[in-house]
Each structure stands twice: as structure tokens, then as C-alpha cells.
User: Which sequence fits this backbone?
């Protein structure tokens, strides 16, 4: 069976009253300590026994708690400012502690101030550095692979562009070659006797157009008797006597 509910009234028995006081006092002090630790609260507890014996507990000190209590009670206007200041002070203290911890960790990672560290802390630091080194190498390998893929892609693009340019240059060269051959073929068709191998029909150089040919070429058959001692007049007479003109051709 469970304990019955205790009636809240003064215990008449002196011994029972003293025992109950000791038990309840210890429980109250324990609860005050747990409240200050679990809830981060500032707790102050003052107990006077029936024999005028003092029992007290203060998470930050009973006097500091009393001073704060007096400030809150007798200066209500400054209550909000005090709370805000106290909050900022605690926040600054936490940030300062965190900053110092980060600086200490950074020095340890750089290999500085390793003297105060224990074997376990040094082992943890070594594992942390190995993990960071592995991640850095993996990231470097990934970046190199990405750069190689990008260079290969650019190489393929440049190769395709080069092939297209080669095709264009080849087509242009073939077209220019065909045009040149066509112009030469048309010139031979327009003036067949104006070829390099046929020197029998000369072309008059006085014409401005090279395609204009001499309308009446002269074909001479036979030989011209040339006498050195008679001079040019004798040559012309002999040529006139031994030659006969038929329709613009001299035979």
C-alpha cells in the first residue's frame, strides 16, 4: 500500500518535527541545485531552523543573488536595461569562449601549441588531419577529371571545325581549278590557231583584244631565192614573179 497523504499542519512531536525538517531541507537544497544546473537559472535559497540555525544555497552566491534581487525590486525602471545588459554580457562571453576554442583548434591543425595535448587528443587530431587530407585529394582529383573532360570536349569541337574547314578549302580549290580549265578551254575554242604549238598563223599584236585573230593569214609554199649581192629590191621582184595570189592566199 502507498503512503497516505500527509496533512499540512505543525507536527506536535518534537522528534518527528526535527526529522521531517532534516529530510525536507535536504530535498529542497537538492532540488534547488538541480534547477540551477538543468535550467541555467540563478537560484538562491535561505533557510532558518526553529533553533535559528542558517542553511543557504546560491548557484552564483547568495550575496550576488540578494543584490540582484534588490536591484530588481527597488529599481523597476532599470529592470529591462539590466536584463538586456546581462543577456548581452552572457552572449559576448559565450562568443569569446567559442572564438578562443576555434583559435586553439586552428593552431593545433597548423602544428602549433601541441605540448599541452595528451596522447588521445593527438590521436584525434591525426585522424582529423588524415580525413581532411583525403577529402582534399578527392576534390583535387574530381577537378582534374572535370578539366580533362572539358579539354577533350574542346578538342572534339576543334577537330570538327577543322574537318569542315578542310572540306570548304578543298571544294573552293576544285571550283577555282574547274573555272581556270574552263576559261582555257573556251579560249581554245574561240581561237584554235592561237595555241602554243602552232606558230604558222601569227596574231597581230596591234589589236587590244587578244581574242581578235588575223582575218586573212598568208600561207607561202615554195622558197624565196635570196641573193646577198642584189639587195632587197631583187628579193621583192623574185618573190613577185614566183608567187601567185589565190583568194588571199599566196602560193
Assistant:
Amino acid at each position: 500500500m502507498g503512503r497516505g497523504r500527509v496533512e499540512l499542519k505543525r507536527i506536535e512531536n518534537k522528534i518527528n518535527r526535527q526529522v521531517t525538517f532534516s529530510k525536507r531541507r535536504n530535498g529542497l537544497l537538492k532540488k534547488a541545485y538541480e534547477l540551477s544546473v538543468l535550467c541555467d537559472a540563478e537560484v538562491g535559497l535561505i533557510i532558518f531552523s526553529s533553533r535559528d540555525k542558517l542553511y543557504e544555497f546560491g548557484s552564483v552566491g547568495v550575496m550576488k543573488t540578494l543584490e540582484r534581487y534588490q536591484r530588481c525590486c527597488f529599481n523597476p525602471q532599470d529592470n529591462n536595461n539590466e536584463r538586456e545588459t546581462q543577456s548581452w554580457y552572457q552572449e559576448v562571453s559565450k562568443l569569446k569562449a567559442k572564438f578562443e576554442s576555434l583559435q586553439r583548434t586552428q593552431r593545433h591543425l597548423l602544428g602549433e601549441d601541441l605540448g599541452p595535448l595528451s596522447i588521445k587528443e593527438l590521436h584525434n587530431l591525426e585522424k582529423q588531419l588524415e580525413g581532411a587530407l583525403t577529402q582534399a585529394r578527392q576534390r583535387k582529383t574530381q577537378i582534374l577529371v572535370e578539366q580533362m573532360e572539358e579539354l577533350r570536349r574542346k578538342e572534339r569541337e576543334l577537330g570538327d571545325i577543322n574537318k569542315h574547314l578542310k572540306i570548304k578549302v578543298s571544294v573552293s580549290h576544285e571550283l577555282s581549278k574547274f573555272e581556270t580549265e574552263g576559261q582555257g578551254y573556251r579560249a581554245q575554242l574561240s581561237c584554235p590557231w592561237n595555241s602554243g604549238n602552232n606558230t604558222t598563223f601569227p596574231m597581230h599584236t596591234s589589236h587590244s583584244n587578244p581574242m581578235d585573230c588575223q582575218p586573212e593569214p598568208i600561207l607561202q609554199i615554195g622558197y624565196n631565192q635570196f641573193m646577198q649581192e642584189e639587195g632587197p629590191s631583187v628579193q621583192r621582184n623574185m618573190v613577185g614573179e614566183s608567187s601567185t595570189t589565190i583568194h588571199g592566199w599566196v602560193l
Remarks:
- DSSP finds five helices and four strands in the chain.
- The radius of gyration is 62 Å.
- Residues 119-190 form the longest helix (72 residues).
- Residues 192 and 198 are 9 Å apart (CA to CA).
